[in-house]
Amino acid sequence: MAGAPAPARPVARVLLDSPLPQLDRLFDYSIPPEFDAEAQPGVRVKVPLRSMGRVVDGYLVERIEQPVDDRPLSEIDSVVSPMPVLTPELYSLARRAADRAAGSASDILRLAIPRRMVRAEKAWQHSPPPEAPMIDPGDVRTAEEVLAAFPHLTEAILAGERLVVDAVPRPATLADGATVGAWAVLLAAAALRTLAAGRSVVVVVPDHRDQDQLLTALAGRVPATALVRDDARQSGPARYGAFLRMLADAPCIVVGNRSAVYAPVSDLGLLVVWDDGDPLLAEPHSPGVHARDAALLRQESDGCALLVAGHTRTSDMERLVRVGWFREIIAARRITPRVILTATSDAPGHARIPSTAFAAVREALAQGPVLVQVARPGYAPVVVCDSCRTPARCPHCTGPLRVRRAGSPPECSWCGRGIALWRCTACEGQKLRLASAGSERTADELGRAFPGTRVIIADGDHPVLRVEHRPALVIATRGAEPIADEGYRAVLLLDGDRMLLAEDLRIGEFCLRWWSNAAALAAPGAPVLLAGVVGPVARALATWTQPAYALRELSERTPLRMPPAMRVAAVEGPPRELHEVLAQLRRDVPELDDQSILGPAPLPGEDPPRARALVRFDYGAGRAVTGALRAAVIADAVSTRARRTRGAPKSRNTLRVRVDVPDPDL
Fold it and tell me: β-strand 656-659 against 567-573: which pairing, if any?
């Protein structure tokens, strides 16, 4: 007779909320009887960690049953809240995203799940669950009419396809008289149509300006309980309350910044990424997963439609279109701004603003506002020696000098000290020259050129979201342009030649995106004047052929083995350890050849010395490379802790890895 089976005990598998890479796995803990009812998958818990001698936070990922006579286990210390906040789908997405970037799943969850707010949680628990939203049939028909401008777009969304769309570059006026970008109307229509089909929608936008436009386009057409805002500007209780609404069974539309791509909505039908080339969608915190890459992973797991839209096409998206991973849907009618290329040489002394552009601005001011885009904020961001044109440096810290306002002495951009007496280190000259004009100096100059005209500055220090439809000069830095009621009567793009001089692999793409987004704010038929720029980027803007430019960039980078043709990982550490890691990487991943690893090269100003290497690899080798790099990071962290245990001086982990670096600059 077989013996009776051993009694089983409930065991919790817990993911610790810790930045230590060696703790990035599930730990088993016994569930004591007093926590058996509340310790369910997805709840926050506190558990003891004997190796650190303290209690740490974590998420209960799953419950299993184990025989009592199995290995001894520590018990859960407490259940922080009975509210499940980690869904199985969110954990799976976090795990996949972290593995792809050689990072930790807890770092992803730290971005996806906001801090617990007790009052907001209790208020949610005592409120009735939200009901399924009801959409007015008239609004659904209007949405379908908007989507009809892109043939077969509605059918493709409902079929769960991966789609890329170039949005119409012009403003649109809503029924209530508000002006938003035509792109916001299109995305709102796609979201509304999906919600009407009973499925949730997540829309990821770069910043609050885009978010406000999209929420304006959805206002009044979607019930307030089904429209969820998710961004870092919200208060803690508001953001946690929005997160709890996402967890509800009733479908909703979530509009948020890059972390919204992880929103744990039920039955996701459509995931939208707007303007994927915006650097704000690149996550700066570890492990640095771009919102576009996280969206691709989520689309695979959830089976939803994925729509990537913008006024320009990134080379990353063009690669995905070329390999057949995305389907491109083109508008039935081609609509483009009226772009005019102007040369600075047609004005006396090679003036910053060409005479033709000056005349166009004067004419447009009689009809409404005019947008002037400049490269940098401030008055004079760059100051040089008047004699030899050497950039002026601070005598105290060698930082670059700048002038904050007209008539004020120069000051250091680093230490902030005012410099009353300055002497050039190259020629001993003592006279300074303002080498550039920021937004404030441009506003000052144009205010004198157009007396009696209202001048508005829009930059980081002077945020402006909207301007009314009356004559005004709006001087804005790139990305800070406010939207104008009924659109701008002219758009003038200055400093384009300076923008293109930046040392960045993607500077051509960035400039084309900045200029295209500004051009999309112009009223239909209004001139968009690009001053002093020639070449492929200017031609792409003038002919409105951004996908062709993206293909050209991709074609040029492919033989050079640069992103996005290949993936690139940056590895930093002490020279000796870094050489060992790279040697082990070559052994573990035979696909890497002699041209795959660049460096190591020493990092300047590091004490003790550190070096940096770039690892270039095909997308097919991604799992092997990131797995090997992750193993190296864990081994480094364990050895660092061992040195501390033996009494060595306290030090940080020596090895750092960043996968998919946007600009591989050694």
Answer: antiparallel
Q: How many angstroms separate the CA atoms of 659 and 579, rounded?
A: 18
Angle of CA points 373, 357, 481, to nearest 5°: 15
Start-to-end C-alpha separation, the chain: 71
Show the tokens assigned to 97: 């995203």
For 264, the 3-state DSSP assignment is coil
Residue 418 DSSP label: B
Count other Cβ atoms within 10 Å, centred on residue 197: 15
Closest Cα to residue 310, out of 467, 161, 519?
A: 519
Residues in Cβ contact with 361 at an 8 Å cutoff, skipping those fewer than 6 apart: 353, 370, 372, 450, 473, 490, 492
pLDDT, tens digit, 9 for 90 and up, residues 562-619: 999 999 999 999 999 999 999 999 999 999 998 999 989 998 877 788 999 999 999 9
* CA-based nearest residue to 558, from 315, 276, 293: 315
pLDDT, one tens digit per residue, over 105-147 is: 999 999 999 999 999 999 999 999 999 999 999 999 999 999 9
Average pLDDT value for the chain: 91
CA distance 211 to 195: 18
Cα separation, 522 vs 488, whole angstroms: 5
Respond yes or no on whether the N-terminal peptide bond of residue 377 is cis (omega within 30° of 0): no
Q: How far apart are CA 657 and CA 68, in angstroms?
A: 41
CA distance 71 to 68: 8
Burial of 179 (0-12, 13-18, 19+ CB in 10 A): buried
Q: Looking up tokens 């102007």, which residue turns up?
A: 342
* ∠ CA 145-220-254, rounded to 5°: 85
Query: Taken in order 316, 317, 318, 321, is the CA torsion positive or negative?
Result: positive
Residues 367, 291: Cα–Cα separation, whole Å: 40
- Contacts (Cβ under 8 Å, ≥6 apart) of 184: 172, 210, 213, 214, 216, 217
List Cβ neighbours of 128 (8 Å cut-off, separation of 6 or more).
none
57: left (phi over 0), alpha (psi -120 to 50) or beta: beta
In contact, 340 and 543? CB cutoff 8 Å: no
Question: Among all chains, which residue has been given the structure tokens 């300074």?
Answer: 432
Provide CB contacts within 8 A for 580, sequence distance 6+. none
Predicted TM-score (pTM) of the model is 0.92
Gap between the Cα atoms of 361 and 531, Å rounded? 13
Number of neighbouring beta carbons within 10 Å of residue 525: 10
**How far apart are the C-alpha atoms of 19 and 528, rounded to whole Å?**
48
Residue 380, both tokens: 């004079």
Pairing label, strands 179-181, 432-434: unpaired
23 secondary structure, DSSP code: G
Cα–Cα distance for residue pair 663/186, rounded to 1 Å: 32
